[in-house]
């Protein structure tokens, strides 16, 4: 599928909007079925995100195991962490994302899915 830069940008904007708009739909069902809202839902959201992140890393590792046929080579092929250089920007990004996510959960809780 060959797309021009403009078409790719529009497609990325649509996917990003749909993804962002659907991210808090489970909040509606958590509130209805289990009475979870606000900060209580944030723990569930974070746990789900952590599980998905671990599964993605595991999938990437298994892919490299399949292609290299060697566990040591698969570990070496994984992206490096660069903790010395990236811990401060990573921490700042995580804190800012968490504040924004918590704020959006509060907005959806009190204003509704369409307005919040």
- Counted beta strands: 0
Report the mean per-residue pLDDT as an integer: 87
Number of helices: 5
Largest sheet: none
Order of helices and strands: HHHHH
**What structural class results from the helix and strand content?**
mainly alpha
Roughly how much helix do the residues carry, as a percent range? over 70%
Low-confidence stretches: none
Strand residue percentage:
under 5%
* Radius of gyration over all CA atoms, rounded: 19 Å
What's a concise summary of this model?
The longest helix has 30 residues. The protein is mainly alpha-helical and 116 residues long.
Could you characterize what this model shows?
It is a single chain. 81% of the residues lie in helices and 0% in strands. It is built from five helices and no strands. By secondary structure, it is mostly helical.
Main traits of this protein?
116 residues; mainly alpha; 5 helices; 81% helix; extended
Show the helix and strand layout:
Blueprint: H1 5-22, H2 25-34, H3 39-68, H4 71-77, H5 83-111
Helix pairs in contact: 3-4
């Amino acid at each position: 599928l060959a797309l021009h830069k403009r078409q790719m940008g529009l497609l990325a904007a649509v996917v990003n909007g749909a993804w962002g708009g659907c991210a808090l739909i489970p909040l509606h069902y958590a509130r209805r079925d289990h009475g979870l809202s606000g900060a209580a839902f944030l723990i569930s959201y974070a746990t789900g995100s952590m599980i998905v992140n671990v599964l993605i890393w595991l999938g990437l590792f298994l892919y490299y195991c399949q292609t290299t046929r060697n566990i040591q080579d698969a570990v070496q092929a994984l992206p490096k962490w660069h903790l010395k250089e990236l811990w401060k920007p990573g921490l700042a990004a995580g804190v800012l994302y968490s504040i924004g996510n918590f704020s959006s959960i509060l907005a959806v809780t009190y204003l509704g899915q369409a307005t919040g």
